[in-house]
Design brief:
The structure is a single chain. This protein has helices at 10-39, 54-61, 77-83, 87-95, 128-141, 160-172, 200-205, 219-236, 263-270, 274-284, 290-313; strands spanning 69-71, 148-153, 176-182, 185-186, 189-190, 210-215, 240-245. It has 11 helices and 7 strands. The protein is α/β, with parallel strands linked by helices and 335 residues long. It is globular, with a radius of gyration of 20 Å. It has a 5-stranded parallel beta sheet, with helices on both faces. It has a two-stranded antiparallel sheet with strand order 4-5. It has a single domain, classed as Rossmann fold. The chain binds thiamine diphosphate and magnesium ion.
Length: 335
């Protein structure tokens, strides 16, 4: 864990680290609560927790501008919260309520907010990549200076869509930054069981796309590298790929016997927890104490309580509205 930010005054460094810590803790505590609410049957369907990987969404989102577009995966609570979708509307979405960010129709895997240019939430592995390339093409055609950030997992690189998207982005020189969250597993399949080349950053080279590998457990390293990459994409309108090395601490989804990885490996990665790492380095530098930490925790707990109340208070969509916004003209049955 790096302790200094080059060229930045100590008081600003302190504030940046506080913000990063707070943003990561917000996601961690929100998801712990979500897991609890899932067990209680308040949240149904799928629920993929991002716990362990928070440094990526938090570090990367800070360096994106409001005019930039974002495409994420189904493990996207962290990205949505870091982008600014409120906890209440994410929670209400997971409850399936109308006041959710996707009107309760998407659930955990389909968080969406057009105003924040947060274009999903994709349940289809690799499905977001061509969308991101399309958004980058639109930005180019509209002559805006915006960048599209596309988050995806290591599992997506096995999909044809990954290669097609990389090829077109490289060929047409589109302003898109591919952000691969390599947590070493795609459900129960380890990366080296499905890829002949496990260095994902290297794959970009064959498409003429610059790339690098970054420690995804170090939020400062993520922020620094992603910031540089995004500014390069913005300045040159050429694509870039970052492979973050990370790990999910929890099961793939809510139920998973985790027979594909051993407990020692999980424990080892937990010692690299991005939140604990930042807390330790801040304490060592004398810029964080237990009182600060408990203040952060209480304000997050309050925000979570309010989010749950907001979700509870939301309404279910009336049955007669269920065919609204459905993409068909032929469907005409009575409910
Ligand atoms: C096209 C497609 N194939 C299979 C699945 C089933 N599936 C859901 S998650 C997943 C693993 C994806 O792993 P990765 O991209 O590494 O993301 P992670 O879960 O590790 O964040 C698979 C295979 C799917 N949703 N879409
Ligand atoms: Mg993975």
């Amino acid at each position: 864990m790096k302790t200094e930010i080059a060229g930045i005054k100590p008081e600003i460094t302190r504030q940046i680290k506080f913000d990063l810590l707070r943003d990561m803790l917000r996601i961690r505590r929100f998801e712990e609560k979500s897991a609890e609410l899932y067990s209680l049957g308040k949240i149904r369907g799928f629920l993929h927790l991002y716990i362990g990987e928070e440094a990526i969404a938090v570090g990367a989102m800070r360096v994106l501008k409001p005019e930039d577009s974002i495409v994420a995966t189904y493990r996207e609570h962290g990205h949505a919260l870091a982008r600014g979708i409120s906890m209440g509307s994410v929670m209400a979405e997971m409850f399936g309520k109308e006041n959710g960010c996707s009107r309760g129709r998407g659930g955990s895997m389909h968080l969406f907010d057009a105003a924040l240019k947060f274009y999903g939430g994709y349940a289809i592995v690799g499905g977001g990549l061509p969308i991101a390339v399309g958004l980058a093409l639109a930005a180019r055609m509209q002559k805006t200076n915006s960048v599209t950030a596309c988050f995806f997992g290591d599992g997506a690189v096995a999909e044809g869509e990954f290669h097609e998207s990389m090829n077109l982005a490289g060929l047409w020189q589109l302003p898109v930054v591919f952000l691969c969250e390599n947590n070493l597993y795609a459900m129960g399949t380890a990366l080296d069981r499905h890829q002949s080349q496990t260095n994902i950053a290297k794959k970009a080279e064959s498409y003429g796309i610059k790339s690098e590998t970054v420690d995804g457990m170090d939020v400062l390293a993520v922020e620094e590298a992603t910031g540089k990459a995004i500014e390069l994409v913005r300045a040159t309108s050429r694509p870039y790929l970052i492979e973050y090395r990370t790990y999910r601490f929890r099961a793939h989804s809510m139920y998973d016997a985790e027979l594909y990885r051993n407990k020692d490996e999980v424990e080892l990665w937990k010692t690299r927890c991005p939140i604990n790492g930042l807390i330790a380095s801040m304490k060592e530098d004398g810029i964080l104490n237990d009182h600060d930490l408990s203040e952060i925790e209480s304000s997050i707990a309050l925000e979570i309580n309010q989010a749950v109340e907001y979700a509870e208070a939301g309404k279910w969509e009336p049955l007669e509205d269920l065919t609204k916004f459905v993409y068909t003209e032929t469907l005409n049955f009575e409910l």
